[in-house]
Design goal:
The protein is mainly α. Helix 2 packs antiparallel against helix 4 and helix 4 runs antiparallel to helix 6. The protein contains 6 helices and no strands.
Length: 233
């Protein structure tokens, strides 16, 4: 069924829907349990990539701080690996967010009204929105919003710790820093001068900070007017 076909859609009884009967309530309960299960599985997959990032950063720290003469290069290279994990996690989060939004939609529109004595859940617009989401499944948020959320929740701390550890290594090893020129010379990597490495690092960290702030504003605007299950994404 196409999106435009929903304009004149009616329930099988020809109306807008009656109250749920016992069989329909039971089916909806099983549907909710299934969505909770799927969201739990994908939540575990999100935790896996975060754990990989923490472990690889820990290995890089161990290698870099093993001795005063050890190179700080592993702390630079691990940033590339953590970025790859962030990309994977953002992709996984888009899937997780579908199941999470459906669970939350059923909770707020079906189970929550059931708990109030003054109201009972009835079929209506929320049911149609959920039905369309099943017939026409799609991501509820874009890739950059997903990446921004994972940055704000987990990866901003990982990247910040990486940057602090790297500059700490450059400043104190093999001996405490004395001059600015020495600081740049310690940052040099092979044929790349220290100034170039510093600029690339500043651009990299500035980019993820900008992305985190920008997507936060996008989320605030999207949640200000929730028009459907996609608005809960």
């Amino acid at each position: 069924m196409k999106q435009e076909d929903w304009a004149g859609w009616k329930t099988p009884d020809g109306g807008t829907g009656n109250e749920f009967d016992n069989a329909e309530i039971g089916a909806l309960a099983h549907l909710y349990r299934g969505e909770v299960y799927r969201s739990t599985i994908w939540r575990t997959r999100l935790d896996n990539t975060t754990n990989w990032s923490v472990v690889t950063l820990g290995i890089a720290l161990s290698v870099t701080y093993a001795s005063p003469s050890a190179s700080p290069l592993p702390l630079l290279l691990v940033g590339i690996l953590i970025t790859m994990f962030l990309i994977l996690e953002a992709r996984r989060y888009r899937y997780f967010n579908v199941w999470r939004a459906r669970c939350r939609w059923i909770e707020t529109n079906f189970y929550a009204p059931m708990l109030f004595r003054s109201s009972r859940p009835k079929p209506g617009e929320w049911q149609d929105i959920l039905g369309r989401d099943y017939l026409l499944p799609q991501y509820h948020i874009g890739f950059w919003r997903a990446m921004g959320r994972r940055l704000r929740r987990n990866y901003m701390w990982i990247f910040s710790f990486q940057a602090i550890a790297y500059f700490g290594k450059v400043i104190i090893h093999p001996e405490p820093l004395a001059t600015y020129s020495e600081f740049l010379s310690r940052m040099a990597v092979g044929p790349f001068p220290g100034a170039a490495i510093f600029v690339v690092g500043a651009l990299f960290h500035g980019a993820w900070v900008t992305l985190a702030i920008w997507t936060y504003g996008v989320d605030k605007r999207a949640h200000a007017a929730k028009a459907g299950v996609g608005g809960m994404g």
